[in-house]
Amino acid sequence: MDIRSFKRRVCRFAMMTPALCLLLVIAAWADETSQGDKQGDNAARMPMPVDEDSAAETRWRNKTVQDSRLLDDMENPATWSHVGPGSMEFTTQRCRDGKQSVRLTSPTVLDNVPDICHQRMYGQTLLRRSFAKEDWSGYNRLSFWVYPTLPGFNTICMSVLLLNDGQMEGGPGQPTRGSLHYVLLKPNQWNHVVWEIPHLTRDKVTSVDFIYRLQGNEPGAATTVCYDFDQLEVRGRQIAGNGRFRAAGPIARVAESDPSRRNVPTLVMIR
């Protein structure tokens, strides 16, 4: 084959290739459409509905309460403080019980935050309820009500932090920062939050923080948000089946022969 014949064949193949690719794309699309039609109503729809009856939060809220202690009904501001941007106020606009609730108001962004494009949030703001080294060892759950108002937000969250003797548990050698609990909330209604805390040391509780992280806002969403809190309490040990759960000491000590499992919180069942 001479060089001219070879060039002609190469040119013909080059002209055929785009048409061949187009035919393959059309065939793949037709096959996908056909498969979708066959699936019909069995195809997953997004967003998928949430089965709240099967959620862990629902089980926690529905546990039988053996004992409870009201920590704060938000009627006395003496033990409350605010840290970070925004403000704290006691409002009679809404409450779960009594006459008022405590409100955390915060912007969603801050000005002049250096290098904000390389970090997740502008900062955080919080309400702090202080305690005088109280012993909550006889209780294993923290309960409170929160009413979030964040117009335009598709996802609403907050976190709760419990400090014992001024310290946060977790960090090196432990699987998680167990003293910090994240919560997803529904907007414009009272949400009952129950946090299981048997894994935490709680014999000298010094504070509970309600935290909002400033992570900006979606286009068209509010640039100022607020959370109203009411009825903070601790609850006693719960009956679960034929036994009772409690924490195995503040931090369970595992065999020295297995250093990787030291200081891992553990639950035991008392028959």
Please supply descriptive tags for the structure shown above:
disordered C terminus; 37% strand; Jelly Rolls; elongated; 5-stranded antiparallel beta sheet; 2 domains; 271 residues; alpha+beta; 6-stranded antiparallel beta sheet
Secondary-structure element string: HHEEEEEEEEEEEEEE
- Tell me the number of structural domains: 2
Terminal CA distance reads 91 Å
- Main β-sheet description: 6 strands, antiparallel
Helix/strand-derived class?
alpha+beta
CATH level 1 name of the largest domain: Mainly Beta
As a percent range, the share of strand residues is 35-45%
How are the elements arranged and paired?
Elements: H1 3-39, H2 56-61, E1 68-72, E2 80-83, E3 87-91, E4 101-107, E5 123-134, E6 139-149, E7 156-164, E8 180-185, E9 191-196, E10 205-214, E11 224-236, E12 239-240, E13 243-247, E14 267-270
Antiparallel strand pairs: 1-11, 2-5, 3-4, 4-11, 5-10, 6-9, 6-11, 7-8, 7-10, 12-13, 13-14
